[in-house]
Amino acid sequence: MIREESEEEHDEPEDVAQGQQPQKQKDKAGLLSKALRAPLGTRTLSLHNLLDQAPFLEGQQMQLQYLERQQQHTEQMQQPPVTQQHQLPGPGPSIFAPEVDHTTEAETSKKSKKGPVWKRKHLVIEQINELIDELDEIDGNIALQAGDHIHANEVILTFGMSNTTLLFLKEAAKKRDFQVVVAEGAPMYGGHQQARQLAQAGINTTAIADSAIFAMMARVNKVLVGTHTVLANGGIMAPVGTHVVALAAKHHSCPFVVLTGLHKLSPLFPHDPSVTFNDFRSPAEIIDFDVVAEAFPADLEDGTAPEDVYVHVANPMFDYVPPELISLFVTDTGGYTPSYIYRLLAEYYTREDYDLNSKAVHALSR
Prior knowledge:
By secondary structure, this protein is an alpha/beta fold. 40% of the residues lie in helices and 13% in strands. It contains 13 helices and 12 strands. The strands form 3 sheets. A 7-stranded mixed sheet has the order 5-4-3-6-9-11-12. A 3-stranded antiparallel sheet has the order 7-8-10, covered by helices on one side. β11 (328-331) and β12 (334-336) form a beta hairpin. α5 crosses α7.
């Protein structure tokens, strides 16, 4: 084998011009480049390789040590090396070879799949943080408009407990002197907590029972309430008892103002049969359990329980207030009338969001 290659070398023409290389040497250079590019685990130092690297035989050991150090460094970093050129030590002309990438196709495909997912994760986290910051600032943005809606020596009526209303009244009390009448909001009685916190803030506060709302409305200049949801037609879903307050305000021609953020805006209508807008709480908030037990008739003689119940206790959570009873919405972006809600829906929702039936929810969840 060696003799054949040596004979081929002697058969080469000697009159090759200076500065040109025979085709054989180019082929050998190609073999050398391939040998250097091969991974250490697959490289073989056969006699052919030694002949190809004859000019660099003295530096062969140093080249192997260098590549072994590169492989150890790559394993420590636990990542595929960046394709860069490094000069290999040894006598002779400079040789540049790219670093070896030992990453398999399976690992590359896994990394390519994980990369976009990680990037999307950062985007989702950033959007969630922005949404949380926006939600934290909603009540403050609404409270900044308190000076435009509450004037000196006015009597303001509110119902139950609402953090938005509480902050709104506290902000107005910094520049105005006024009185607040708080309805207790049975059966949760959140108005007791509302009245206590307003009094601690130095605001002249009067607490009344829900049955006294109509009697006190003649002395009230404005009604401020919070809400659970703003519906597409301009109506609201508010704590139970709010509809009574709105009717009393309408009868006495008193402005009924709703404080809410636009994140509570819903594309649903109150007459939508596929949506249940109300919920029921435990009857224990209205009557004690011993009274509920007495509402059931005694057991029959054969020991079976009777089918009829003498008393049914209903404890709904929300009231629907139609748009004709609402004077103004004070939101985190300004004040709007109920007739303007459709413009806000066009701005914050698309037509696809209007259909929130079970099929659409199932399609989005897949």
